[in-house]
Structure formats: structure tokens, C-alpha cells
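Write out this protein's structure.
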Amino acid sequence: MSLWKSKTTKVSGILSYLDAGAEQEVFAVTGVQRGFIDGIILDLNTITLNGTIRVYSRIDGTNYRLLVSHTFTVGVDPVGVFLDMKFPAHVDFRVTYEESADEGAARAIPYVYVLSE
């Protein structure tokens, strides 16, 4: 029997990346949750043009600050993107995606992350 008791919750959803360009929020977590985020997975299978994934945190409690910027290259990078990050879930954060050029249509971006207590 383990002395450590950990509860994990899988959180998932799908962003419909609008054919409007610009940086769009895939999902956000506000500081009302306890525990840790243990990795983020994005499915970029429907994306046809290069783009950029960004992760921001509201470190000072007011302003979002860029933590990670990852360029996604179609045909080169795997379409399943794993962001190996572990950080406290009580700090607000958000994940965004931005196309490098107009996709020409809305695209689905499924995501999943694990919340561990």
C-alpha cells in the first residue's frame, strides 16, 4: 500500500480554430483548481499550414507571460504534440494556437491534459 494518494483527472475538449487567423485560445485553466498539470497534448491532424503553439501563465496574478513557444511544421512534426510540462494548477494559464497563413477553413484542434492532486 502506498503512502502517497494521488487522484488524476483527464480533461479534454476540442477548439474549432476559426478561419479568421490570429492567435486563438485552445483552452485556459483558472487558478481555482488544486494540484498539478502533468503534460498537455494537442492533436493537430486537421491543420494544413504551419503554426505556433504558445503557453502563457499569469505569474504575477494579473498579466499573462509567455512560458513556451513551439513552432509546428506540417509534414515534418508529428501531428500529436506533447508539451511535457508540470506546473501548479492554481496558477492561471492558457494554451493558444496561431496559423502562419490563412488555413482557408475552420479546423478542429482536440486537446487533453492531466490534472493530478
